[in-house]
């Protein structure tokens, strides 16, 4: 039997009852305020003594309580002042209620992690961990560590304002849509607060992490900029030996893999690409061990009959590789030409002399050495265009060489770099496609080499590393930040399931002939359903840290820091310099080469 519908009389009675409660809630405090105000006006005007407690008389018959007080001070004390105070109190209360109601609608805080549940990520616990991880901090007095010395600040716990940190052994992954704050709230703050060396990959320069952080990092160490595609029009003030890591078969194979991965995705690789990678591996190994520049590899690919790489491999004892390369050359012409043409496509960017100049010996500029970089506080900016093909292969190879050199240095130092190296791999799926990055994550953090890979979507990572590789990268990341703009329904549902369920109380009211009744029941529902994850506002992020409940963060962009005005001014100066270099480059009468020589 369904419950009876409420009658008109019972509904009217309930409405009258609520109205009476509202009136009493306003009138009773107001009457007390009138009594207090009248007494204060009488005492301050010196026209009488303190009247006995009688709020009703103060409101209805003031002349009985204060017969000697004139009407002007009595009116101010009894009516104007209480009315003003009450109005202000109502306004403030209304503002507070609306603000918190709207905050509750936009910030899905309920059942997410509290400060006690993420205590290992708060300042005190992170500072204690920093002392364990960094021997240089052991002798520092307690409570004297700056925020930049204890970890990477990820944001503030919402609600509240307690700072949340990633420790100096956490490896991070951020998935945030474009223009959702991934650079301003994650990349730039991590770079500005880094205690040691910094590596940044990016596909932008003006008004981005490059210009925002350049002057600040130049103040603490040397700045190196590898800009083969002239994103920032940076003058060529370094050269890097791209073949230095190719002296061993493993290193040569990794270098070849960077050029392959930069050109085609893992799912598109076939016989020709794998055969071309083997050929490049042999040629890189031969060139590296005979002191030849990488441009000689281009010459060998252009002339398959050239026996120089075969003889070089035999000279270093790589007879099996020499025989394999010789077999490729002596095989069917169609097969040989297909393999060599595929290899030429992988190295196509090096056909541009302006790009090749960054990775071939140049006595007029310093040589960038990854092994020296790992021990200081220098900064390396690696810039490349989206879809840069083989040019992004140079960027991936440089980033890989730096991180591997840092790991070797950490092993020499006893297991961990101190201070740690921060590697911000912004736009990693576009300009820094390191094929085995998910595998590197498993041990980089334990060496004090802390990568933060920033992607625009989960599927973007799947496109580069495949389903298995992206799942491995997700699992290996000890801190994961999910920002606004997650429009992938499958990924949003996956996140919703990871966040979990909670019990929700439901209060229902019913009316019958016997009167009004209230019942309370519970149901299980998602803490954050997929649509709420998709609607996560800009400036907030979900933090998934290993072994801890999911927390909601308020992100802290660099332009809200105390020194934001100085940082913004520095960014404007560097952006203006880029604009000037672009104009000079365009106006150079003899073309780009004349401009680079002048620079």
From TrEMBL:
Spans through the membrane: 15-35, 79-98
Name listed for the protein in its UniProt record: TraD/TraG TraM recognition site domain-containing protein
Source species of the chain: Streptomyces hainanensis
Keyword GTP-binding: no
Source domain of life: Bacteria
Matches recorded under CDD domains: TrwB_TraG_TraD_VirD4
GO CC entries: plasma membrane
Pfam name, any one: TraG-D_C
Residue intervals of the TraD/TraG TraM recognition site domain: 420-538
Main location per the UniProt record: membrane
InterPro entries in alphabetical order: P-loop_NTPase, T4SS-coupling_protein, TraG-D_C
Protein topology in the membrane: Multi-pass membrane protein
Keywords attached to this entry: Cell membrane, Membrane, Transmembrane, Transmembrane helix
Cellular localization per UniProt: Cell membrane
């Amino acid at each position: 039997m369904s419950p009876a519908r409420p009658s008109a009389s019972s509904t009217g009675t309930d409405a009258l009852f609520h109205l009476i409660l509202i009136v009493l809630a306003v009138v009773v405090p107001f009457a007390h305020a009138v009594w207090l105000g009248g007494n204060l006006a009488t005492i301050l005007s010196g026209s009488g003594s303190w009247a006995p407690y009688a709020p009703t008389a103060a409101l209805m018959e003031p002349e009985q309580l204060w017969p000697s007080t004139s009407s002007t001070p009595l009116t101010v004390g009894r009516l104007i002042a209480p009315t003003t105070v009450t109005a202000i109190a109502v306004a403030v209360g209304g503002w507070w209620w609306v603000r918190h109601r709207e905050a509750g609608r936009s910030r899905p805080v309920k059942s997410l992690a509290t400060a006690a549940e993420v205590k290992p990520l708060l300042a005190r616990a992170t500072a204690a961990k920093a002392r364990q991880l960094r021997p240089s901090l052991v002798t520092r007095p307690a409570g004297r560590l700056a925020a930049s010395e204890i970890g990477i600040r990820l944001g503030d716990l919402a609600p509240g304002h307690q700072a949340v940190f990633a420790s100096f052994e956490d490896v991070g992954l951020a998935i945030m849509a474009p223009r959702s704050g991934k650079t301003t709230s994650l990349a730039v703050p991590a770079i500005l607060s880094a205690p040691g060396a910094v590596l940044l990959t990016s596909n932008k320069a003006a008004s981005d992490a490059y210009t925002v952080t350049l002057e600040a990092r130049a103040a603490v160490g040397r700045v190196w900029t590898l800009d083969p595609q002239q994103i920032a029009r940076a003058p060529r003030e370094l050269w890097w030996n791209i073949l230095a890591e190719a002296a061993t078969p493993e290193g040569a194979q990794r270098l070849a893999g960077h050029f392959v991965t930069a050109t085609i995705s893992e799912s598109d690789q076939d016989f020709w690409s794998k055969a071309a990678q083997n050929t490049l591996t042999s040629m890189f190994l031969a060139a590296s061990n005979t002191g030849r520049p990488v441009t000689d590899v281009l010459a060998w690919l252009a002339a398959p009959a050239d026996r120089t790489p075969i003889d070089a491999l035999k000279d270093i004892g790589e007879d099996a590789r020499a025989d394999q390369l010789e077999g490729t050359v002596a095989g069917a012409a169609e097969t040989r030409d297909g393999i060599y043409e595929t290899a030429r496509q992988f190295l196509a960017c090096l056909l541009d002399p302006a790009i090749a100049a960054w990775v071939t010996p140049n006595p007029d500029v310093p040589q960038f050495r990854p092994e020296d970089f790992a021990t200081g506080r220098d900064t390396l900016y690696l810039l490349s265009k989206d879809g840069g093909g083989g040019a992004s292969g140079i960027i991936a190879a440089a980033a890989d060489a730096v991180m591997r050199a840092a790991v070797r240095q950490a092993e020499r130092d006893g297991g961990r770099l101190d201070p740690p190296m921060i590697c911000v791999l912004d736009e990693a799926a576009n300009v820094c496609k390191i094929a085995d990055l998910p595998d590197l994550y498993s041990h980089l953090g334990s060496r004090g080499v802390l990568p933060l890979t920033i992607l625009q979507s989960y599927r973007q990572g799947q496109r580069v590393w495949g389903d298995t590789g992206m799942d491995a990268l997700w699992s290996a990341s000890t801190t994961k930040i999910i920002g606004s703009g997650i429009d992938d329904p499958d990924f949003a549902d996956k996140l919703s399931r990871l966040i979990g369920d909670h019990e929700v109380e439901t209060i229902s009211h019913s009316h019958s002939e016997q009167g009004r009744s209230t019942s309370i029941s519970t149901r299980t529902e998602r803490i954050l359903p997929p649509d709420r994850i998709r609607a996560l506002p800009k400036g907030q992020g979900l933090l998934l840290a290993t072994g801890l409940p999911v927390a909601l963060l308020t992100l802290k962009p660099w332009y809200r820091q105390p020194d934001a005005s100085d940082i913004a001014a520095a960014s404007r100066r560097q952006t203006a310099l880029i604009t000037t270099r672009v104009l000079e480059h365009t106006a150079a009468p003899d073309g780009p080469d004349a401009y680079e020589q002048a620079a």
